[in-house]
Design goal:
The protein is an alpha/beta fold and 534 residues long. It folds into two domains: 143 residues, Cobalamin-binding domain (Rossmann fold), CATH 3.40.50.280; 288 residues, Aldolase class I (TIM Barrel). It is 45% helix and 15% strand. The protein is built from 23 helices and 17 strands. Strands 2-1-3-4-5-6-7 form a seven-stranded mixed β-sheet, with helices on both faces. A six-stranded parallel β-sheet has the order 8-11-12-13-14-15, with helices on both faces. Strands 9-10 form a two-stranded antiparallel sheet. Strand 12, helix 13 and strand 13 form a beta-alpha-beta unit. It is globular, with a radius of gyration of 23 Å. The relative contact order is 0.09. The C terminus is likely disordered.
Length: 534
């Protein structure tokens, strides 16, 4: 097939009239691929799209100027109350605007539409086909209450129509390329960033209890791995990267695939063609039980400079019975060894505070990272999200779980379940990477994490050390591009980051909007955020 930017999966017949769709979103430290994919489908169907990022002191007026027919929100648990408040204001100012919620929270907590009468519809799961069908019916003045993948409020009765889920979109290439213009036009910080985000697949075959994939696949869509796990062709992926490289600043690529080495045949073709056709440094996430040394050799030769492996937990029971990772310690250690052997920076993904885990179990995870000589250890505190199997496990074990409305915004710094040694685990989270990079500290870890009054000090140390690791990583990216000089020294970059952030604390009370954007610029490429770890 000919690789094109536009999609063919959706009915191309023109709508009765062109509707204006507005995506309202917070500024995030990386581009929003979900909005890009939706915008591509909406534009290809003959409608218009625009994005508006908050905070923006003139956001209400800007919505009025654009006069959207539909306003869309991508909502996560922890930020859902904020999105609800923004939507309420929109309903008050522009009562005829159709308000649609999508994203993780409405997908797994659909009752949000029943509890908030200013939400007209929610989309559960993939939205490219569903949103176009909804828009076309709205444009024609037709009944839209039967659109699959959506729960919709009947405008006459107020009743909620809970529709079934359609199968996953089978051919990802048919969707065309994500519409980057919608994001880059609304936020120049994304357009100007050296790092751009790409994805080559949807779905994951693993059954991890703490991840959304098993819940979406089995509990929402009700499908099989064969239909749920889909890969774009190498042709399509490379064509998209070439287009972005021609139009925008692109010096480094972050692939957000859950398992980049999902298909050996696909990986072979990619690694053969990528350095010849693209030649830009990139990073990936690999699954240890699927990783072989020849995968690492090929990735290194293709330009991969950083690879992450999901350790999650060193204890076999926690890792495999509770988290359901289906990996052995030998597989984790082998994958880590091969990554280091072939000169790629090694990152690890770890999780503390799993139900049933002891403090000693979490300390063993620290020791595993030390043995593997991890360069970039990333750590999160386990969160029992709605409809995830880990939520059921946690409750069955007798742990109290916070209500979803009580989930904190900075949830990865704080445990939302009550268990023994909770404060020690939260302190260990802050010191995790520092101890791994300085193994001599293990002899003092017990007394250190028991000092609860030191938690704020540890948070500051954690933030400083994280910035140092980001600066180290930036140096690796620069070296891979042949960039030299003091500007690219890790020490210089670190001092710049810390100095600017310190100044922002004093500045943001006077110039909050400008300060927020400057802080965001410093976060672009921050691995804590890029890898969904804070």
């Amino acid at each position: 097939m000919t690789v094109t930017e536009t999609a063919t999966a959706i009915d191309p017949s023109p709508p009765a009239r062109s509707l204006k769709v507005l995506f309202v979103n917070d500024y995030l430290p990386q581009e929003m691929l979900g909005i890009m994919w939706l915008s591509r489908s909406i534009k290809d169907a003959g409608h218009q799209t625009k994005a508006l990022f908050l905070p923006d002191k003139d956001w209400v007026e800007k919505i009025g100027e654009y006069a959207p027919d539909v306003v869309c929100f991508s909502v996560t648990t922890g930020m859902h109350l904020y999105s609800i408040d923004v939507a309420k204001r929109i309903r008050k100012e522009y009562p005829d605007t159709f308000i649609l919620f999508g994203g993780p929270h409405p997908t797994f907590s659909p009752e949000i539409i029943e509890l908030n009468d200013h939400i007209d519809a929610i989309c559960r799961g993939e939205g490219e086909v569903a949103i176009v069908e909804l828009l076309n019916h709205l444009a024609a003045g037709e009944d839209y209450q039967f659109v699959q993948n959506m729960w919709l409020r009947d405008p006459k009765t107020g009743e909620i129509n809970k529709n079934t889920q359609r199968p996953p979109i089978p051919d990802l290439d048919s969707l065309g390329f994500p519409d980057r213009e919608i994001i880059y036009d609304a936020g120049s910080i994304y357009r100007d960033s050296d790092r751009k985000v790409f994805v080559t697949q949807r779905g994951c075959p693993m059954n991890c209890s703490f991840c959304f994939h098993h819940a979406l696949k089995k509990k929402i869509v009700g499908t099989t791995n064969a239909k749920y796990v889909r890969k774009r062709s190498v042709d399509h992926v490379l064509a998209e990267i070439k287009q972005v490289k021609e139009k925008y600043n692109l010096k480094f690529i972050h692939f957000v695939d859950d398992i980049f080495n999902l298909s050996g045949k696909w990986l072979d073709e990619f690694c053969e063609r990528y350095p010849k056709e693209i030649g830009v440094p990139f990073d990936v996430i690999l699954m240890a039980n699927m990783t072989r040394e020849h995968h690492i050799e090929k990735l290194a030769s293709a330009g991969c400079v950083y690879a992450r492996i999901a350790f999650e937990a060193a204890n076999d029971y926690i890792r495999n019975a509770i988290f359901r990772k289906n990996t052995t310690i030998q597989q984790l250690e082998d994958a880590a060894f091969w990554i280091k052997k072939h000169g790629i920076r090694l990152g690890s993904l770890n999780m503390l505070g799993g139900p049933g885990a002891s403090l000693e179990d979490d300390l063993e995870t620290v020791r595993l990272n030390i043995r593997c000589k991890v360069d970039q250890p990333l750590v999160s505190i386990m969160q029992p999200y709605p409809m995830f199997d880990i939520e059921d496990m946690t409750k069955e074990m007798g742990y109290a779980v916070a209500a979803y409305d009580d989930f904190p915004v900075n949830f990865k710094r704080t445990a939302t379940i009550e268990f023994e040694h909770k404060r020690e685990i939260e302190n260990l989270h802050k010191l995790f990477a520092i101890i791994i990079r300085n193994p001599w500290m293990m002899r003092f870890v017990g007394p250190l994490i028991r000092r609860r009054w030191m938690s704020k000090v540890y948070l500051v140390i954690y933030m400083l050390h994280s910035d140092w690791m980001v600066s180290e990583q930036a140096k690796i990216y620069a070296n891979a591009q042949g960039l030299r000089g003091p500007k690219y020294w890790a020490t210089v970059d670190f001092v710049r980051r810390v100095s600017v952030k310190g100044a922002l604390r004093a500045w943001q009370t006077l110039f909050n909007k400008a300060a927020q954007r400057t802080a965001l610029k410093l976060q672009m490429g921050d691995e804590r955020v890029i890898a969904h770890m804070d």
